[in-house]
Each structure stands twice: as structure tokens, then as C-alpha cells.
Amino acid sequence: MSRVFNWAFIGAGRLADEVAKEITASGRHKIVSVYTRNPEKCKAFAAKYGAFAVDNAREAMDRTDIDGVYIVTPHTSHAEYALLAMDLGKPVLCEKPVTTDAKLAAEMIHCSREKGIYFAEAMWTWFSPIANQVKCWLDRGEYGEILSCHMSYHLNSINYAPRVSDPNVAGGALLDVAIYPITYIYRLFGKPSSISCQGILKDGIDTGEEIVMTYPGGKQYTASVSIVDYKGLEMMELRGTKAVTKLPFFHAANAVRICRFHAKNRHLRAYGGKLVEFDIAASEIRHGLTESRYVPHQATLDVMNMLDDCRRQMGLVYPFEKA
User: Fold this and answer.
1) Which of 65, 96, 123 is the last residue of a domain?
2) DSSP H/E element including 45
3) In Å, how far are 5, 10, 82, 213, 298 from 71, measured between CA atoms?
4) Which terminus of the chain has fewer Cβ atoms in its 10 Å neighbourhood, N or C?
């Protein structure tokens, strides 16, 4: 990039800090302003990254030196801040899931299209060279006929941040971690004919799911998810008649190998961190795009509809939806 890309950060929690540390270290990104509802946390974050701590989201966004807005708050406030940013003419990179349901996601996408403003879901897996290499191998027929695809994402992360266990901000496994394997399978094979989901509900949230995505012809690809145990850890296994890939830590992997049964194996090493996502988003914004080439609006909407379907099957209704 020819010059540093200036961000307004909306949110200053644990994930915001992890992202900020990585992208500012590159020298290609700068956090100019930050807003979060906790003034002390806001000031501490701003001091750490040389940013301005401001009293409201509008002030953080509505500056002439802001190139883009990164929204990294609990899921329930994503739509509010994204719509405000686009109303102010500011491009948006919004953490996954972009919101809590497909209706709101459609409203955000409509706003982006109507105003001609960049809006992208920060689904960093699909900015990753590793995930895109798996897709490339699949599209080239390297795996042959696909026999199975299973993804396990068991991570005892319920205490990662207060939002994860809080039903009032749409906490739980589905929106926090199940979105990764669902999106991964969607990007490999497209939109399924149907999705089935059996989940475990406790204290107003879902702590885990068993998910089956069914495709025309009867093909089924599966995912197992939990935020309260390490059973199966994080692993993707894609098996075909010609090759297999077993990929640990699939959502942020730095290396991948395709083991071919009758030919030489191939592998790729590439950085899978957040910086790749921010570099690409900044480039897309500077090139005048309003929709990311890596995470199209339709992909975001399709996945959000599948998440809604999973919630209906589990009977998962958040407190703010019951009013």
C-alpha cells in the first residue's frame, strides 16, 4: 500500500486488542480513533495504540482522516454501528457474524449497495491463502470425487470474553464458532439444499452443535462444534477418491498439504493471520470496490440464513427477541 490505512475501531475488547497489535505492527495500518461504551477501557486502548479515545461512535467515524471503520463489538450492536458508518460514507469491515439474523444482514447489505459504500464481513478465513488454496485444489479436481468432508471445532472458549456466555448479546457456540465450519463448507461446495442442526442449550445459550449440510444428490458434509470441551479439537478432513487433506486449526492455518494417492503430494505455507484480511480490505476500499471479492454479500446472507435455520431447529431465541 502506498500509505498507511487509517482505521476507526468500534470496540476495544480482547479481540480488538489482538487485531490491533497485529495490524499496527506491520506499519501499514494505523488506528486513528476508538470508541467503546466503557470510557476507561476506551482510554486505555487508545493510549496503547496512539489513537484518539472519543465519547461516541459517530465522532470516532466521522473524521476526514478515517479510511475505514472496523466494528468489533458484541454481535447485537454490529448493525447499529455499520449502518451509522455507511450513512457517514465510511467503508465498513464488520466482525463475523455481521449481525444476529438474516433480516438485519439484508438491511446492512442493502445500505451498502444503495449508498455505494464498501461493506464486508470480517470472515478472515476466506481472506487466507490457505483456505483459498484448498478451494483451488477442489475446483481443479485434485481430490477427485468427494467422499466426505468433516469439520470439528471444539474449543473450551466459553470464558474467552464475557459476550460468549451472555444470551443478551447473542452469545453461544453457533454465532461465535459454528459460523467457521458452516462458512467453510459453504465456500467449498456452495449453498446446501438443507441444513440440520442438533444443539445443546444451557443458561440461554447454545454450547455446541452437530450440523449436517445436505447437497443435491444426497451428499452430506458435517460439522461438530463446542465451546465447552476440547473433544476433537479443531480439524478439517476433506477426503476424495484421489486425495485427502487433514488440516488442523483450519480457520487460521499457516500451512496445508494435499496428500495425493497416486501422485506427489503438494503443500503451501502462507501466513493465515488477521493482517492478510486487513491488507486486502484496505486495497479493495482504495480500489473503489463496494463488495469484497473474498466474502461476497450473497455469501454473508446465505450463511446468515443457515444460522437462522439452525436456531429455529434448536429453539434458540435470545432474550431481546422475546419482547
Assistant:
1) 123
2) helix 39-49
3) 16, 5, 7, 30, 20
4) C
Cell of residue 86, nine digits:
455507511
Question: Containing domain of residue 51, as a range?
Answer: 5-123
Q: How confident is the model over 4-54, as pLDDT tens digits?
A: 999 999 999 999 999 999 999 999 999 999 999 999 999 999 999 999 999
pLDDT 10s digits, 147-188: 999 999 999 999 999 999 999 999 999 999 999 999 999 999
145 and 168 in a single domain? The answer is yes
- Which three cell numbers, joined as nine digits, stand for 54? 472519543
Model pTM above 0.85:
yes
Cell of 108: 446492512
Q: How many helices (H) and strands (E) does the chain have?
A: 10, 14
The residue written with cell numbers 473433544 in the block is 231
Residue that the C-alpha cell 458484541 belongs to: 74
CB 78 within 8 A of CB 99: yes
Residue 100 shares a structural domain with residue 139? no
Nearest to 237 by CA among 226, 221, 252: 221
